[in-house]
Design a protein that fits this description.
Blueprint (H helix, E strand, L loop, with lengths): L4 E12 L6 E12 L3 E5 L6 H8 L7 E6 L2 E2 L5 H11 E4 L11 H11 L4 H14 L15 H13 L5 E5 L7 H15 L5 E5 L11 E6 L2 E6 L8
Parallel strand pairs: 3-8, 3-9, 6-7, 7-8
Antiparallel strand pairs: 1-2, 1-4, 4-5, 9-10
Helix pairs in contact: 3-4, 3-5
């Protein structure tokens, strides 16, 4: 892990709604993630974790502050530039998986490669290889409706990894997985995060995987309230 920053968030504010329905999800968040680091975000439901990773990944715009990913700020990009930057640099594992129902597992995983210009068959072949690494070798031609929640989750994780993004952002990647499968997936994610110039940010409630983190950031009520180097350092 280097001292160079992959993500730098400073005084980030995000508000939903207007007037009486206004809700402040992020209240001046400061967070730094280093290159080569696996950072976990923990905290109670509704504290702003998913909003924060959505801002980091350029899926949501923030209202105030600065959030840079590899020294680029999405707030200073056009819509087209954002799409291209995300396609080339960011992998996102959604909690709801967001698989395309008409595509097979391999085709779903291949989507980022195809968006980036790879020939379809080459992309699907590469996707099938990666699915084998997450224990899905026999499901490459299955549609999402034919897969369990845990299997869909592994497809979503493979899709986030397939294009070798510099930043991988995951929302509860082990929530639907048993202990053994969850550890295998985390070992794969950790090996990717330790690659040159990469970083990984994971939102999780799963204390079984805390040991994979290089650092753990605890959120509460829209703030980062603590950053610890191990689960043992976390305040309860």
């Amino acid at each position: 892990m280097s001292g160079e920053l992959a993500v730098s968030c400073t005084k980030v504010v995000k508000t939903y709604g207007t007037d009486d329905a206004k809700v402040m999800a992020l209240r001046g968040v400061d967070l730094e993630v280093r290159k080569g680091e696996l950072m976990m975000l923990v905290g109670p439901s509704g504290c702003g974790k998913t909003t924060l990773i959505s801002v980091i990944a350029g899926i949501l715009d923030h209202d105030e502050g600065s959030c840079k990913v590899y020294e680029r700020d999405f707030q200073h990009m056009s819509g087209r530039e954002k799409v291209r930057y995300r396609a080339e640099n960011i992998g996102f594992v959604f909690q709801a998986y967001n698989l395309l129902p008409a595509l097979t597992a391999a085709e779903n995983v291949a989507v980022p490669l195809i968006i980036n210009g790879m020939r379809r068959q080459e992309a699907v072949d590469r996707a099938a290889d990666l699915l084998g690494k997450v224990g899905m070798k026999d499901k490459v031609n299955s549609l999402p409706v034919q897969l369990s929640g845990g299997q869909q989750q592994r497809v979503a994780i493979a899709r986030a990894l397939i294009h070798n993004p510099r930043l991988i952002v995951c929302d509860e990647p082990t929530s639907a997985l048993d202990h053994e499968t969850g550890h295998k997936v985390m070992e794969l994610l950790k090996s990717v995060a330790l690659g040159d110039n990469r970083a990984l940010v994971i939102v999780t409630h799963d204390s079984r995987i805390f040991g994979f983190a290089d650092r753990i950031a605890k959120m509460d009520d829209g703030h980062i309230v603590q950053v610890a180097n191990s689960p043992d350092e976390m305040e309860h």
